[in-house]
Amino acid sequence: MSAPHVVTEAAAGCPSRPACLPCYQDSRARGVVLGGEAARFMETEKERTGGHPRKGQKRRQVPNQLVRATETRRARWAQEDMQPEAKKARLSTILFAGNCEITHGQLCELLKYAVLGKSNISRPSWCQIFHQNHLKNVVIFILQGMSQLHFYKFYMEFEFLRKTFRHKFCLPAPSSNFLADIIGLQKKTAGDVPKNSEGSLPSASSKANINLQDNPIIQKYGSNKVDLINCLLTVEEMKTFRFPLQGSPGYENFVPTKCNGSITDRSPLFGLDCEMCLTSKGKEITRISLVAEGGCCIMDELVKPDDKIVDYLTRKDIHRTNRVGYDATEDARTALELAQYFLKNGPKKIAELNLESLGGSNQKLQEAGQKPKNRIEVQHPNASVLECLHLMGQKLLFVAWETDATKFSSYGNCETIKCLSNKEVFDQARVEVPLFPFSIVQFSFESFSPVLTEEMSKKMKTKWREMSTVYVGPVSKTCNFRALKRLLKSFGPVESMSFVLETYQLHLCVQYEVLEAAQLAIESLNGVMVEGIYVKVRRPVTELTLDCDILVNELAQDSENRDTIYLSGVSEAFKEHMFQQCDHFRGLEAVILPKESGKQKKYCFLKFKTSGNAQRALTILAGKDWKLKGRGALTPRHLHEWLRDFSSESRRPPGLRITPLPSDQQALQTLKTDHPKIAAWHWGQKIGKLYHNMDPGTLCLVLLPGSKSSIYGSLPGLGLMAIKDEEGCTATGMGL
């Protein structure tokens, strides 16, 4: 089978030239790759002529059928490029700057923007959500009691999280109320946020001594509150309103829904709205919308009428003027809110509001220069997420342990579900999350003892240092050590380099600053002849590095690393060179150039749209024209910064054994289900099940808050973020 024909995005820079042999030299500089017969023909011609046609000799042409085939393929590619892609909500891939730490306030910015969009609130300052109006829901999982240290200590166990969530960021150690910080309630009390779930319904003062007996609502339902089951239409009422009952005219055109079980006062409520158009035979349905109790849209479908449409009736002035466009689910949600308001406040309240409305209270307000306050407005940047949800007529779902669930219980537009275990939290979330547009699900884990946390932290620091350390040898005592050191430094920044004198033959111990440099040295030099001797390049073998090969492979498959490459040997002019040659690098999204004391280091990371883009760029950059060394990335930016912040107290001779505390060792042997290692795997899988049940277009965050202690120190948190089934980024750019 012949190799596939591939044209990179850069080939579009030469649209007037077919990718045929006569323009190959020019096309090659632009990033055109030929395959199959054309490629083999090119190689044969190059070998026969020494790369260039002899003087006076005509250049041999590619056969016509190959030219035509190439032109056909180019036309097909051009047509495919012009095809409009369905818009999907997606996150920018260039999220962070500096140390990749996102404050709780910045996280709150993102959540508010996800709810309201740019027409009502400013964009978050640290990332972008493209096509925000295509977001379906927002779901936040909080792993209370865990931190960034836990995630990388049990990195292998958190398989689903590390492979699914492409965007990761550091969180500062939490305050006393982490939830209030990320929701924006730090300076608010329950009185500052709406306590009622009425949505757009205005409040009315009670009217004493008013005769309401003539009101039709009172006549039908009485003055006291009524149950849901007593609000159902009777058969006679359904006949009056021409419901398609069995045996009625036109019934054969309807499909009845089959309800299992009887309706009770605890049965769920749904809001339904049908949009009509005018056809040649009258009004016919064109759209149907259905929302659940939390305000989440579970159905929004267009219906094609049988007859020709003469008027779409798209005039929906009754809607808010501060919204751009029309949300077809708004009427369904409003109908649901009206029913909820009626059940909560009773017929008497509705009758009083009717009388007040007839009295013209809104007209009086307008005459006084005031506007009826139908919904709260986001007029300042300190608005909370709950206020934003209230503006949209939506509720927040909070599922947590009973001891934690009281935090939002005083807020009216928050549905709180109290649980007695993590298993119950999971079971409730599986049922309730799909029904709400914004959900917070909190799992709680017992915090580690300070002694165990300190021991675990030391192990982590030691493990990453040992993985970044290599032994090189044996080397000859008469070798050119300056050249050898220069060779070892070509793979990346070296923190320290020393001779090992405890061995019969001379070895070098090299401590690299980044894991990628150590791995590149192993892959490039192990088994290679240096100064007349075949050398081995390997890591120290300790209990912490026994599985490092597996860990390195898993790091390479991390969702944040798959599309990123590491390069060593870059100069200060590298950025300018990249700009000049950017046509070679399709899908380039970011160039990350680490600096120290204002001076650029000699390595960098390039982030691409896809792993295929990254591998093609690596092939070019590691070639003879660029003379760089590189491989796939292993350390996400936030992890690299975190590792750099490790204190120097962990620096010790590689290979020194750390004995686990007896309690930890015993727990590992018994493999109890509540051991952190097992819990990390178990609940990572549980979150995976909940994630797979979400609608495409759902913004999902997993937050490990960290911990803060004035006595034992603080542990920073970690955030993971993704939009389910988000499309890849299409724009290119440089992030410095």
Automatic annotation (TrEMBL):
SMART domains xref list: RRM (SM00360)
Keyword entries, A-Z: Hydrolase, Nuclease, RNA-binding
InterPro entries found in the cross-reference section: Nucleotide-bd_a/b_plait_sf, RBD_domain_sf, REXO1/3/4-like, RNaseH-like_sf, RNaseH_sf, RRM_dom
GO molecular function, one term: RNA binding
Residues annotated as transmembrane: none
Domain of life: Eukaryota
PROSITE patterns registered for this protein in UniProt: RRM
Domain RRM residues, every copy: 468-542
Pfam families (UniProt xref): RRM_1
Protein name: RNA exonuclease 5
Species for this entry: Cavia porcellus (Guinea pig)
Cellular component GO terms, alphabetical: nucleus
